[in-house]
Design goal:
Blueprint (H helix, E strand, L loop, with lengths): L6 H5 L6 H6 L29 E7 L18 H8 L2 E7 L5 H10 L3 H4 L15 H7 L3 E6 L14 E4 L29 H4 L2 E2 L3 H22 L6 E6 L8 E2 L1 H8 L17 H10 L6 H30 L7 E7 L18 H4 E7 L8 E3 L3 E2 L3 H9 L28 E6 L8 E6 L2 E6 L6 E4 L17 H12 L4 H24 L21
Parallel strand pairs: 1-6, 1-8, 2-10, 2-11, 3-4, 3-6, 5-7
Antiparallel strand pairs: 2-9, 8-9, 12-13, 13-14, 14-15
Helix pairs in contact: 6-13, 8-11, 9-11
The structure holds calcium ion.
């Protein structure tokens, strides 16, 4: 590990004065001057002579728990661990919705689902809504998308000035029949029910082929950018589809993890005490019908996919390191939402448990951001856009829910007066109920439309969220206060109506597009033989 990024190097410097830090006069053992910036939280706090480039890696369905630096002792993620050790890691970051399209559109716009009216994978983001790629482009950035963003509808850019490779998701995805990218692998392996777990194990899928191609495309962009003499900064988003299910991974990785992963078990009586909305959801998705061996196989495959993904991230990070622009490039790693991956004996997403609604978030700018910092404050994927605009010294997008994180990147890694609060919304499964989550301090409250009582967890006392306090008499006051807060400005009935309307509109649009054989823009061509399953 590079000693400048070593946590120990910082702890041994803990007694140095603020003035010494601010002057940047301390020299690390390897002779590289450490640059410490004074604590500033204003716009453009890190603005220098040159605007920084941005490399944002966004995976799909990466559990915030299944990462070496998050404490998982089984998974091998050396590349992301190295990025975290050299940067600022956030441990309480949430997505705006634990489902692909709404999460990504809230990420791009820094606005909550109800504000942009995107709650499901059939809701289309209005092209007139401001996005951070659009705002960066207006500020002089080349905004480039290498890979997936799961845009629905005809606008496949939303502020990106170009795409280096098409998307893996077809905007005109057929409503029924075979998955266009998975050959003979059942379509439900990409879904959110027990079918995603029943077909799992060693093999290869087009999702791996896609991420290989995305990696190549991103590395090529960085190498080409290194050769160009231009002052125009870039913001490159590398959009991966892994470790999204199918829970199918290469045999060598599957075998490695099959002999190492555990099979989570539920405490006795747990299912009897479930909140009615969760009982309904579990029954509909059929997760409790899965046996231990099915859980074991899918978990091993998920771990294998995470390692496969980490290797690809390593290739992109190494490609950046080889360039002359690395020292002026901010790197961000995150995902659109997590995966329960067997925790609570649940799978995939559309749940507000930490493994599904929580996301990893790492920020790195060697020599500028304080390395080895862990931030435990409550933050959101919606904060990424405002932070990038702040670092770019660009005008912020007005009236957004996201907040700039730049104050966390220097000083002691804390921001005085930061409000530990974030909201998320969901209606992500067929026949799912509209629901809204509020995380406030140690508390998480989940309001399910049509149910009398919310779910309530205290994450400080119960980090695994096994003890719903909805009926706990000692929590009456906090429950009522949070219930009022989570109800504020939110209408589950209206949300359900709008979602139904969006489905009808989407169906009509797709029928029209198919009838006219409209070419699909920005779509990736799958190579032959991309799917092999099962595989020895
Ligand atoms: Ca997703």
């Amino acid at each position: 590990m590079d000693s400048i990024h070593d946590k120990k190097a910082f702890s041994s410097n803990a007694n140095l004065t603020r003035r010494q830090f601010a002057r940047g006069t301390i020299t690390a053992a390897i002779g590289v001057p450490l640059v410490f910036l004074p604590e500033r939280q204003s716009r453009g706090a890190f603005a220098g002579e040159r605007k920084p480039n941005f490399l944002i890696i966004m995976s799909d369905q990466q559990s915030p728990h299944v990462l070496g630096h998050a404490g998982d002792r089984v998974v091998r993620t050396p590349n992301l661990d190295r990025l975290a050790a050299g940067g600022v890691r956030f441990t309480a970051t949430y997505c705006g919705s634990p489902l692909c399209v709404p999460s990504r559109m809230t990420f791009l716009t820094a606005q909550n689902c109800s504000k942009i009216e995107v709650w499901t994978n059939s809701c289309v983001l209005d092209s007139e809504t401001s996005t951070f790629p659009g705002a960066l482009a207006a500020a002089g950035y080349e905004t480039v998308l290498a890979g997936r963003m799961h845009f629905d509808g005809p606008d496949q850019r939303h502020g990106f000035t170009r795409r280096t490779i098409g998307d893996v998701t077809q905007p005109h995805f057929p409503a029924k029949g075979k998955h266009p990218l998975l050959g003979s692998i059942p379509r439900q392996t990409t879904g959110q029910s027990k079918g995603a777990v029943e077909t799992a194990g060693p093999g290869r899928t087009s999702y791996m082929a896609y991420d290989d191609a995305v990696t190549e495309s991103a590395c090529k962009f960085l190498a080409e950018r290194d050769q160009q003499s231009t002052d125009k900064p870039f913001a490159l988003v590398v959009g991966y589809v892994l470790p999204h299910c199918p829970y199918i991974c290469p045999p060598e990785l599957f075998n490695y993890y099959y002999s190492r992963v555990n099979v989570p078990q539920l405490p006795a009586g747990y299912l009897d005490k479930l909140h009615p909305a969760e009982r309904e959801d579990r029954q509909r998705r059929g997760f409790d019908e899965l046996n231990d061996e099915q859980v074991h196989i899918a978990r091993a495959a998920y771990y294998g996919l995470v390692e496969y993904h980490d290797r690809l991230c390593g290739r992109v990070l190494d490609a950046l390191k080889r360039t002359r622009i690395a020292d002026n490039t901010v790197v961000v790693y995150t995902t659109d939402h997590g995966d329960m991956a067997g925790e609570h004996r649940l799978w995939t997403k559309s749940l507000f448990y930490e493994a599904s609604a929580g996301v990893p978030m790492i920020w790195s700018w060697p020599g500028r951001f304080r390395a080895g910092t862990t931030v435990r404050r409550v933050t959101s994927l919606l904060d990424i856009g405002p932070t990038l605009l702040d670092l770019a010294g660009a005008p912020p997008i007005k009236k957004v829910a996201g907040r700039s994180l730049t104050g966390f990147f220097s000083g002691n890694g804390d921001v005085k007066g930061w409000l530990d609060e974030t909201f998320a919304e969901c209606c992500g499964t067929p026949a799912g109920r509209p629901s809204r989550m509020l995380r406030e301090g140690p508390w998480k409250i989940i309001l399910h439309h049509g149910c009398d009582k919310p779910q309530l967890f205290n994450l400080a006392e119960d980090p695994d969220e096994m003890n719903d306090r909805r009926d706990d008499p000692s929590c009456t006051a906090i429950r009522e206060r949070l219930l009022n807060r989570v109800r504020e400005g939110w209408d589950g009935e209206r949300m359900a109506k709008k979602i139904a309307q969006s489905k009808e509109r989407r169906q009509a649009a797709f029928e029209k597009a198919r009838a006219h054989a409209t070419p699909i823009p920005d779509y990736w061509d799958m190579p032959p033989d991309a799917n092999i399953f099962p595989m020895k």
